[in-house]
Amino acid sequence: MSSTETQEYSPYLQPGGFKNWFFTVDHKRIGLMYLYAILFFFIIAGVCGLIVKAELLAPGMQFVDYHGYNVFFTLHGTIMVFLFIVPGIPATLGNFLLPLMIGAKDVAFPRLNLLSFWIYVLGAFVVILSLIGPWDEAWLDTGWTFYTPYSIDSSTGVIPVTLGAFILGFSSVLTGLNFVVTIHRMRAPGMTWHRMPLFVWSLYSASLIQILATPVVGITLLLLIMERLFGIGFFSPELGGDPIMFENFFWFYSHPVVYIMILPAMGVVAEILPVFSKKAIFGYRAIAYSSIAIALVSFFVWGHHLFVSGMSYWSRWIFSLLTFAVAIPTAIKVFNWIATLYKGSVKMDSPMLYACGFIFLFSIAGLTGIPLATLATDVHFHDTYFVVAHFHYTMQGGTVVALVGGLHFWWPKMYGRMYNELIAKVGFWLLFLGFNATFMPMFILGYWGMPRRYADYMAEFADLHFASSLGAMVNGIAYIVILGNLVYAAFKGRAAGKNPYNSLSLEWSIPSPPPLTNFDEIPTVTTWTYGYGEENT
Amino acid sequence: MANHSNWAPGTFFHLHEEDPVEEYENFKLGMWIFLATEVLLFGGLFAVYFVMKWRYPDLFLAGAAQLNALLGTGNTLVLLCSSFTMALAVDAAQRGQQKKLVWNLVLTLAFGTVFLIIKFFEWKAKIGHGWFPGLNLDIFFSIYFMTTGLHLLHVLVGMSFIGLLLYRAVVHKRYHEENFGGVEIGGLYWHLVDVIWIFLFPLLYLI
Amino acid sequence: MSSVFPEYATEAARQVDHVQFFIFLVMAFWFIACNAVLVYFVFRYKRKGPDDKVSTVKGNHTLEVVWTVIPTILVLGIFYYGIKVWAGTRTMPDDKDAYVVDITGQKWSWSYRYPDGQTTDQDLYVPQGEVVKLRMNSLDVLHSFFIPEFRIKEDVVPSFYTYLWFKADRAGVYNIFCTEYCGNRHSQMLGKLHVLTPEEWAAFKAKDYFEVLTPLEHGKDLYVKKACVGCHTTDGSASIGPTFKGIIGRQETLTDGRTLTVDFDYIERSINKPDDEIVAGYPKGQMPAFEGQLTKQDIQDIYTFLETLK
Question: Measured between CA atoms, how close is C154 to chain A, in angstroms?
């Protein structure tokens, strides 16, 4: 390797200044800007969520009125989904790592990458515009799902938010397009498909979904905007429209989108486990192909969100069966991950703690999907707290935990500095404790029939709500600890060195932080990424 | 181009050099993927069309009868011709035939303009009759305006891109045997715009 | 509640609980198995030093097949069991074989019409042990009718009917929830299902079940049951709609600038078509239109109640 240990090269973090960052075409800088943006919105949406949980501490309305509650759960969902978790891991870790992992100097279309980021900023701005206006009339209260007919007549904030989401869709599509072309065409010599890191396979699968599913929600939101502006009867019954058609179109995108959220998260886990077990990932091809399989099957299951919306008998049958089909490749991944630790040399540093935490929490998430896929039980659980618990286990217990674990893992690469390991571990356990305390009671609340999106509730649900809300406070404090630790490390952490974890992946073969053009010479790859222990045989 | 040396490396004007052949293949793959997203976008609209047609068959038959099939056919022929001239332009670029390239780009734009003019008159007539979203609740015409409107937007975008190609071909003499990727991907996009109309025309005008 | 599940009140609900219990066993098994193995591996293969011997195994085809096939079989089994139990609930009995109640959902109340023309609001009354079929429709946005103790739920949609059916084995009172977000008072769109014993049911059918209310009592009852209480206070405090305190005889200015004195005719017009004459400063599109739902007698009784609110 010609890259040196001494600081003779120019790391990508310099020079600073607004112009050099906002007009950058370096994928690493774009990844960081996305990171700062989505963390900002994560905090805002998180605060909205904490307001919701604070109101739910006790029966009766203590802090906000009904409208206020509805606004805050809507903002929480909308900002979390569109401004945080959909860009999520692909836009941040994906942008930063993809070219590094495949031995490229940048993505296929660096300027398009920058455009994606600017479009994201524009979309976010338009969404924020919705908050300008009277509290009662402007602030959005439809829920992030914008179901018609309520969203046709409801608050004026519907148009800026849906327009903003429409714009954000372009950002998502262009990023997906960029990644697919990059992966197909920019791999270093010798980096065959079957030598690529699994994180790259997961980004590829997620990008397929981004490209194919996003346009459909784009047109759906466009139709909604047209209906509000011009009174066209696509979805309003009194204008001859069909409100259930909206649900179908909306979920045609919104179900595949959850796999955009989770597949890269699974990819992160597949990168961390081998490094901290010093052992090859078990079942590489099974994990790689199951990512593609999940991406494809995910397009055929959207109906399970509409099981009680008046669908025909046979439609419900078919969607239930297909939903089970998407569970199988997921289960296969879980088994392969666990098998990776077998006869390895396991070190439970904080990234590994997060990866194992992911497996634990995601297994709950995936398994609780089964009663939701089963028709007889879904009828009871639909639109109750059971569903809320299930999707928070997948999104926070899954994607967010993987993102945080990935940030810990690659933080030394991104900044050349190491975080405090003890505080990182404390942060993990606070998160694990707080998260489970918040959402485990919700499964039981759902069994008891507690409906979703209820500003107030009957006395018999009070104890569990109280416990859940206390957990949410711990959940929130955990993020302060975690992010505080990482931010401090970026400025003041001790120097990390090129490869503190002794990983075999290409991104660890260059200095930390990487030079602007990544590799002095494009490497020629002769082995796969997970050849741990092979040098000893 | 202006002096961009005061921009740091890694910013907008300091991209790393890419092998032209690689870049060409990248652009083509990128454009095909983008076309796929456009197909999904219009696919969603077509799905709405079919759902509404199934619910209100009479409304759709009556609406189709109100449309001018002659003008619609004219538009279809115009777009087909424009696709043909665009293909000729791509061929000219690949062979380095500058005059043929420029002429065919101009013809493509001309055909595109004819399409716009015909569309203008069609829409003018409908709006004159009071059939416009917001003024009239007829779902057929709402879908008509929505689909032809979105298509029109894509025609304009396509024509702008072809205009850019024309400018670059005439002023910078940019396209020749070693560099014709831009014309090719412009051609791909234009052909998609044409194909979408080929589907739109019978669905709206003929059945 | 003592147990994890709410009490089941029908045989169908009990079946659903059985499916759930089966699924729970499967979930618990896999959860414990996977995580126990994970935790075991973490401790068993803990790193001892930089020169630990590790296995170089990369995979195992047999294992992949086994742990693909077994979950597939289990999942198919769960799917089949779920369908078997669910199919019965979706096979609607014919109208002639059931006691059919028409349910109307609107923001934010439920109302019910029985085959003999009797109507109730908020609370639904059904006979024990008979097949009851619910024919549901919404007047405005999406709602959903959910009875947890019966494990049944179906969305209530404008522009077409949706259906549920059940046979309640136990007499008692059960919760009704709206479970599709429908706006401001979604969480207050509640009701109670009363499953009546044969004696009570006979009284109900003979319209003898409810104590006879005076016009004033009936008006006050309607004020609650028709959800007026959600937006109109009686103590003068501000809410979504004008307060009822002192409303009769009050001078009001409408959004179009006209002023009028509130009298019976205005009350009647407002109840039937509220958006035509909204008091200035209050939002349009919030109050449902009750045209066709309340009789003239109902409105007179409401007026009688309003008159007492000085």
Answer: 5
Which residues share a beta bridge with C166?
A: C132
Report the pLDDT averaged over residues A474-494.
96
Query: Which CATH number does the domain housing residue A254 bear?
Result: 1.20.210.10
Which residues are CB-contacts of A520 (< 8 A; sequence separation ≥ 6)? A2, A3
Rounded to an integer, what distance in angstroms lies between the CA atom of residue C155 and that of residue C138?
A: 9
In a domain, A24, yes or no: no
Q: Is residue A244 part of a domain?
A: yes
Chain B residue numbers with beta carbons less than 8 Å from the beta carbon of A26 are 10-11
d(CA B197, CA C7): 59
The span from the CA of A34 to the CA of A28, in Å, is: 10
Residue A3 identity: S
Distance separating alpha carbons of residues C211 and B187, to the nearest angstrom: 80
- Set out the domains of chain B in order of their start, with CATH numbers: 21-206 (1.20.120.80)
CA distance C54 to A103: 28
ipTM above 0.85, yes or no: yes
In a domain, A169, yes or no: yes
The pLDDT assigned to B18 comes to: 75
Using CA atoms, how far apart are residues A238 and A228, in angstroms rounded to an integer?
13
The total number of structural domains that make up chain A = 1
Q: Give the model confidence (pLDDT) of A151-198 as tens digits.
A: 998 877 899 999 999 999 999 999 999 999 999 999 999 999 999 999
Cα A16 to Cα C288: distance, rounded to the nearest angstrom: 59
- Domain C95-205: CATH superfamily is Cupredoxins -  blue copper proteins (2.60.40.420)
Half-sphere exposure of C276 (CA within 13 A, CB side): 11
The answer to whether B188 contacts chain A (CB < 8 Å) is no
Q: C236: left (phi > 0), else alpha (psi -120 to 50), else beta?
A: left
Domain C11-45+58-90 has CATH 1.10.287.90: yes
C-alpha pair distances (Å), A350 with each of A276, A407, A478, C52: 10, 11, 14, 20
| Distance from the A201 Cα atom to the nearest Cα atom in chain C, whole angstroms | 17
Q: Is C89 on the interface with A (CB under 8 A)?
A: yes
What is this structure's pTM?
0.93
End-to-end, the C-alpha distance of chain A in Å comes to 23
- Arch. (CATH architecture) of C215-307: Orthogonal Bundle (1.10)
| Distances from the Cα of B52 to the Cα of A245, B47, C101, C122, angstroms | 10, 9, 31, 36
* Enclosing domain of residue A441: 29-536
Q: What is the pLDDT of residues A258-290, one digit of tens each?
A: 999 999 999 999 999 999 999 999 999 999 999
